[in-house]
Specification:
Pfam families: Phage_int_SAM_1 (PF02899), Phage_integrase (PF00589). By secondary structure, the protein is mostly helical. The chain has helices spanning 8-19, 25-44, 55-69, 73-92, 122-135, 140-151, 155-160, 199-212, 235-245, 265-268, 282-295, 300-307, 311-318, 323-335; strands at 166-167, 172-175, 193-196, 227-228, 231-232.
């Protein structure tokens, strides 16, 4: 086979363009982020042609990246698995030797290692929402966190919501995949669904829309549910709201790290809230809400449909009930027979 020379930067751009048809924009950005380190390494090693890659060089990159990024086993696996996909694609355009992708080594992981345990506990969620209801009722932050906790939605789904998706009379909200107007959702059409809402969450949304929501549209003339004065609150902004609201000091709780709230940068500067070691990211809210629902005896299939995630994925990545808790719930069902 005759290889065709190509530099790493050009190859990456061609790869990402090729993947646009099959991956969500968030996934494209994730691939770009992981592979930019490979480009950095290629530049350091004076590799300006992918034809020169070998299995040994790929192993050298793996060891360098592990040390350079101080990666956990899970992070190393994610980055090397993405590199393998990229190298496999490079094989298809005769940029590297055939089967070079089989030489991309990635750590093996147990199911326990392949899960992330960060989760917003029920008590913490209730404390955060109680504080927001009392001191910042029907604010953007309140609506964002309450929606995530109540519906188990991902950030992309909350970002995609319009006022027209909300049905206050029948108390539900619809999630739609609209990539043509910049609001794709993770599972695309398969992620579209109707989500039932409680009286309390409907009252909150009603008050937000009637009293505090800016009367704006986005760049496509749509009326976003979670809006700022500039238009639709983007996903970065929604994440910022979560980081801000879940800081313990935000609601007057003691800092588990014994930091002085008046001197802690994450406490005094909302833009630095993500640096707080004791708050959580949006996915931790989703994980906590799913676990809370399971602990509340909501059937697994109901949680699966509501959260738009398969039972197998719930079992491995979201369910944080202990084996004893699961046993006691099964016992409750037996007592009803």
């Amino acid at each position: 086979m005759s290889l065709e020379p190509i530099d790493p930067e050009t190859a990456l751009e061609l790869y990402l363009t090729d993947k646009e048809a099959e991956l969500a924009e968030s996934s494209i950005q994730s691939h770009r982020y992981r592979l930019k380190h490979f480009l950095r390494w290629c530049e350091m090693e004076d590799i300006d042609n992918l034809n020169d890659l070998t299995g040994r060089k790929l192993q050298q990159y793996r060891l360098w990246r592990r040390d350079d990024g101080d990666l956990s086993v899970a992070s190393e696996k994610t980055q090397m698995d993405t590199l393998r996909v990229f190298i496999r694609w490079a094989e298809s355009i005769d940029a590297v030797e055939q089967d070079l992708s089989t030489k991309v080594r990635s750590p093996s992981m147990t199911p326990e290692q392949n899960t992330r345990d960060e989760m917003l506990e029920t008590e913490e969620a209730e404390a955060v929402l109680s504080y927001l209801a009392k001191y910042d009722y029907a604010s953007r932050e309140h609506v964002t966190v309450a929606l995530m906790w109540h519906t188990m939605m991902r950030v992309s789904s909350v970002n995609a919501l319009d006022i027209d998706d909300y049905n206050p009379g029948e108390q539900y909200i619809e999630v739609h995949h609209r990539p043509e107007t910049d609001t794709p959702i993770k599972n695309k059409k398969d992620g579209e669904r109707m989500v039932a809402l409680s009286d309390d969450i409907c009252m909150l949304i009603d008050d937000w829309i009637e009293e505090k929501r800016p009367n704006v549209t986005d760049d496509f003339g749509r009326e976003p549910l979670v809006a700022t004065r500039e238009g639709r609150a983007n996903k970065t902004t929604l994440r910022k709201y979560v980081y801000q609201a879940t800081r313990p000091c935000f609601r007057g709780a003691e800092c588990p790290e014994d930091r002085d709230p008046e001197e802690c940068e994450a406490a005094v500067n909302d833009q630095e809230a993500f640096r707080c070691p004791a708050n959580v990211n949006p996915h931790a809210i989703r994980r906590g809400s799913i676990t809370h629902s399971l602990n509340s005896d909501l059937p697994d299939n109901v949680v699966s449909d509501r959260a738009n995630v398969s039972p197998a994925v719930i079992e491995q990545h979201y369910d944080r009930r202990t084996e004893k808790e699961k046993m006691e719930q099964r016992r409750d069902y037996l007592d009803r027979l």
